[in-house]
Design a protein that fits this description.
It is a single chain. Helices cover 38% and strands 13% of the residues. It is of the alpha/beta class and 255 residues long. It has one domain: TIM Barrel (Alpha-Beta Barrel). The strands form 2 sheets. It has a 5-stranded parallel sheet. The chain has a 3-stranded parallel sheet with strand order 6-7-8. α4 packs parallel to α5 and α5 packs across α7. The radius of gyration is 17 Å and the shape is globular. The chain starts with 5 loop residues before the first strand and ends in a 6-residue tail after the last strand.
Length: 255
């Protein structure tokens, strides 16, 4: 694999922390030779308590998100294949209601990005550095349950949990998850944004475990502006990272 042809992890300005017009993302992807572009902005979610998330597409902008991208999908049909999905956390206590909600839109796929553990209203962010084994176990249990729903196209940045404890403990719980992910045949994302920003992910140990267990990976650009879609240098670095880790990359369409 010498270039990124398929990217299913693309945001829009509607989430409040991304920039650029929808059309600019499409044009940038075409310029880079990307054949399939999937949009997956942070999904609107209706919380029973009335809680409103600060990093999602607001519910009142959901229709505009799907309408705008549907129009571009038709306009560019002869230049690039566009798919419309969302990135969403798996919160079991509200997942069935969420599925009913999102099915009211022309949503083609879900990717799971677990930024919070079990329930974001409690503020248990996966980004927060912590050496708690219980918290690490909960994170991977959360992902295991998400995989078992069979509702997700793939798992975005599965190594996002910022665990600062020992490697043996991390390996134990990561392998529990990896075995289930392999059993269900779900790809795992090497996140290019994390690599580019020098975040705690991609985590080398996770991808070493992934290679040992034989899980397949996919590269997700996680674009929050149009430019990263055409940054071929960073595309190459992400591919090199996968190769050095010994992970097999999925080099085919997922939809």
């Amino acid at each position: 694999m010498d270039k990124i042809l398929y990217n299913y992890h693309t945001h829009t300005y509607r989430c409040g922390h991304a920039t650029g017009t929808d059309r600019e993302y499409v044009e940038s992807a075409i310029a880079a030779g990307i054949k399939v572009l999937g949009f997956s902005d942070h999904s609107p979610m209706i919380f029973p308590s009335g809680y409103e998330s600060g990093f999602r597409v607001p519910a009142d902008k959901a229709r505009d998100y799907f309408d705008s991208l549907t129009a571009l999908k038709q306009e560019y049909i002869n230049k690039i294949e566009i798919h419309i999905g969302v990135e969403v956390e798996y919160y079991p206590h509200m997942f069935e209601d969420y599925l009913s909600y999102i099915e009211s839109f022309p949503c083609e796929y879900l990717i799971c990005g677990q930024h919070f553990i079990w329930d974001e209203e409690k503020g248990n962010s996966s980004f927060k550095a912590n050496d708690s084994t219980e918290r690490l176990s909960d994170y991977f249990d959360n992902l295991i349950e998400a995989v078992k729903t069979e509702k997700f196209l793939y798992i975005a940045h599965p190594d996002l949990i910022n665990f600062t404890g020992d490697d043996d403990t991390y390996r134990l719980h990561a392998m529990r998850f990896l075995k289930v992910a392999k059993e269900y045949g779900i790809p795992l994302e090497i996140n290019r944004l994390g690599l580019e920003d020098g975040r705690q992910y991609p985590r080398d140990l996770f991808w070493q475990c992934c290679a040992e267990n034989g899980n397949k990976a996919i590269i997700g650009i996680d674009a929050h502006s149009p430019g990263p879609l055409s940054n071929l240098s960073m595309h190459g670095k992400c591919i090199e990272y996968a190769e050095k880790s010994g992970v097999e990359l999925v080099n085919e369409k997922l939809l």
